[in-house]
Amino acid sequence: QAAVAVAPQDVEARLALGALLAQGGRLDEAGALYEDGLALPGGQVALLSALGDLDVIRGNYGSAIKSYQQALAIDPAYWQAAYPLGRVYLLQERPNMALQVANAIAQRSQDQYQIPLLQGDAYMALGRTADALAAYRQAISLAPAIAFLYSREGDALLRAGNYSAAQASFEQALRLDARHVDAYTGLGRMHLELALQGEVDAAGIPQDQTRFSQAQDAFRSALLFAADSIPARIGTGDLLVAYGRPEEAIPVYQEVLSLDPSQETARSKLFDLYLAAGRSDEVIPFYQALLEDNPDQADAVIALAEAYLATDQPDAAAAAFQNFLR
């Protein structure tokens, strides 16, 4: 604050102070600080990008996109705006737009790993696994000491069915960062997939208990370092279901939805498990409690309405929406 007061034209000091304010949850103060500096010579691009970052935190993706685009209109080579712009498009499930941004900035900035990383993530969302793998490997060549890049590579290799190479990538990520949650989760998913491809009984339940233990240990390791990890929790639930232990999977999926009601896959799996276990009478109370705990979450009311519809209660579903909109 003293630096900004003494030298208000210092853009770097303004950005640093704004970042500290944002970390403390004082987003409006940070935004005002950035806005006040937009007239400074040479600082507009960075400050517009910083305003976009604040809007991402707020969930105002439209405003964020506008700020990033304004920054890039001034300096098309400013990757610090292009990268988060692409990430916003991915959050909006618009991977083609993300890829377009990444390809455009790649022509101007070729030494930042974030650009091929963005390309890889967009390719993965588009189902272009081979292209994603090539992009992730380019990112690794630019930043070989960053653990999560190897996890991304492992994810692509796992999707391609190259299990030994995927395992090597995940293990390399853990050599660089022994607490890397994504690598543990990737290993868990890999062991589960291999178990499902191995010997199964008449009901389709895998018989390889070693794979079960390896997958379970991997997911547990992920949760040890990130107790709220949604992917690790979903992986744990999927593992239990695959090995014929649905009653143990139900509370796992419940925990996922308690953390994030928007998880549609967990919602669907939980509902199927309730019905398969003959516990349909528990469906509505669970989703009612979920909505009570998340009264402002549209996904929570959607989950409750879906449960009403699935149990042939359309009027109750309509009433749930009406109550939410009041």
What does this structure look like?
With 326 residues, the protein is mainly α. It is 75% helix and 0% strand. The chain has 19 helices and no strands. It has helices at 2-6, 11-23, 27-36, 44-58, 61-74, 79-91, 95-106, 114-125, 129-142, 147-159, 163-176, 181-197, 209-225, 230-242, 246-259, 264-276, 283-293, 298-310, 314-325. The longest helix is centred in the middle third of the chain and has 17 residues, at 181-197. The chain starts with a helix and ends with a helix. 42% of the residues are buried. The mean pLDDT is 91.
Key terms:
19 helices, 326 residues
In short:
With 326 residues, this protein is mainly α. 75% of the residues lie in helices and 0% in strands.
State the oligomer: single chain
Number of strands: 0
Strand portion: under 5%
Helical content (DSSP H or I, runs of 4+): over 70%
Average pLDDT, all residues? 91
Name the shape in a single word: globular
Number of helices: 19
> Low-confidence parts, pLDDT < 50 over ≥5 residues?
none
Report the end-to-end length measured between terminal Cα atoms.
43 Å
Helix/strand structural class: mainly alpha
Largest sheet: none
- Radius of gyration, in angstroms, nearest whole number: 23 Å
Order of helices and strands: HHHHHHHHHHHHHHHHHHH
